[in-house]
TrEMBL record:
Residues 1-20 form the signal peptide. It comes from Marinobacterium marinum. Keywords: Membrane, Signal, Transmembrane, Transmembrane helix. The chain crosses the membrane at residues 34-57, 69-89, 95-116, 128-146. Coiled coil: none annotated. This is DMT family transporter. It holds the Pfam family DMT_YdcZ. The keyword NAD does not apply. One of its GO terms (cellular component) is plasma membrane.
Amino acid sequence: MLYFWLSLAFVAGMMMPLQAGVNSTLALHGNGAVWASGISFLIGTLTLLGVVLAMRYEVPLPAQLKQAPWWAWTGGFMGALFVATGAFLAPRIGAATMVALLVAGQLIMSVILDHLGWATFPQHDINLGRILGVLCLLVGVVLIRMN
């Protein structure tokens, strides 16, 4: 089962540059990255609604949702920023540079989150291997950016 989850993460990661390119194309035809991102979120919302209906998931009760900390509600903002930024940057810096920087930012934040054990992540200390991995990725960003 672990290999399935690892493969799922890999395939989802492959969708990042594709999504940015698709949204960027929509932005060219629809008054910019913000509108394209909104349309993308609308389609995503409808898709998730279809999944919820098909899987017959229970609707969360307001009392349950009130128990969530305030920051648990910020995921939509972060997603909107991510999607709009990708749609805006894709034609300006290219897929490889954009994704290299996105992944570098994701990895650095991931190491911090793991170290702190925050937001439901299991705690994993920062160690030499993780620091070297981040440094290698940052070197990769520089190499990718070089023409």
